[in-house]
Design goal:
With 286 residues, the chain is α/β, with parallel strands linked by helices. Helix content is 32%, strand content 29%. It is built from 10 helices and 13 strands. The strands form 3 sheets. A 6-stranded mixed beta sheet has the order 6-7-8-3-9-10, sandwiched between helices. The protein is globular, with a radius of gyration of 22 Å.
Length: 286
């Protein structure tokens, strides 16, 4: 069996009296995209800080590529890429200079910075100072910076936050491409559509505990209700009728729906990841 790229075993962490992470365990395989889903304060950022060696767990242990995470280990740092939500860029440098400086920290020479800028849609802005970048442009540069060292493990914290739909799609494509090369990706996001589209598996994290860990499809099949939404017009207004797909009389109800007077549309509907999260934890993701 391949060594997990990311492995957390019973890790816990507390800020004074507040238990932020409560003995959670999971692992991410090479080439897998794992989504970390939960509201603010659920323990997502604390977990990533433990996995990237910024803080030590109070109990349990973490491994990256089979190596124990014991702090700022250069062997691990050389093989991970990190994109945090906060923009810690050098604003008086250009985009090109930011990436070149970061490459130099890794001792990389001959890195094709222009191609990396092109990849995130900043090829024509590489010479501009970052202080003149929009929030979305800065976010794309952060993603580019996380890829400078061609990492084997990628930590992404809300990577499409503040981006327009076209830029968001570009970043999602990059994430899929990196996973296709064998890079393990741990992604935190509030965007349920993004998690559903990208992630092989997702973790539902709330109040420091894991409530579910499975593929989006399996979670929707296990906890969601499959149904057909019927829209029809009655008395001058549009109304909605749901037909569950798991009942003995489903066929009869669908026939009645097709024959319904004022029928507008019929389409299948399934629970969203957010619906399931609320069902399991009693709270939303925002």
């Amino acid at each position: 069996m391949d060594t997990p790229a990311i492995q957390a075993k019973n890790i816990s962490y507390a800020y004074n009296d507040h238990q932020a992470v409560k003995g959670i365990s999971f692992q991410v395989a090479p080439g897998e995209i794992m989504g970390f889903l939960g509201p603010n304060g659920a323990g997502k950022s604390t977990t990533i800080k433990i996995l990237t060696g910024q803080i030590y767990p109070k109990s349990g242990n973490a491994k990256i590529l089979g190596m124990d995470v014991t702090g700022d280990d250069p062997r691990i740092q050389a093989r991970i890429g990190v994109c945090f939500e906060e923009k810690n860029l050098y604003s008086n440098m250009s985009g090109f200079e930011n990436l070149s400086f970061f490459a130099a920290l890794f001792g990389l020479k001959g890195h094709d910075i222009p191609s990396l800028l092109d990849r995130v849609g900043l090829g024509d802005k590489g010479k501009d100072r970052v202080k003149h970048y929009s929030k979305g442009m800065q976010q794309r540069l952060m993603v580019a910076r996380s890829l400078v060292n061609r990492p084997d493990v990628l930590f992404l914290d809300e990577p499409t936050d503040g981006l327009d739909p076209v830029s968001s799609k570009t970043i999602r494509t990059i994430i899929q491409e990196e996973a296709g090369k064998g890079t393990a990706v741990l992604l935190t996001t509030h965007n349920m559509h993004e998690a559903d589209e990208l992630c092989d598996r997702v973790v539902f994290l709330n109040e420091g505990r894991i409530h579910a860990l499975d593929s989006p499809e399996n979670l929707k099949l296990r906890f969601g209700q499959r149904s057909v939404k019927v829209l029809y017009r009655r008395d001058g207004s549009v109304r909605e009728h749901l037909v569950p797909l798991d009942r003995e009389d489903t066929g009869e109800q669908l026939q009645q729906a097709v024959a319904m007077e004022g029928l507008i549309s019929i389409h299948t509907q399934e629970a969203t990841l957010e619906d399931i999260f609320i069902q399991m934890t009693g709270r939303g993701l925002q």
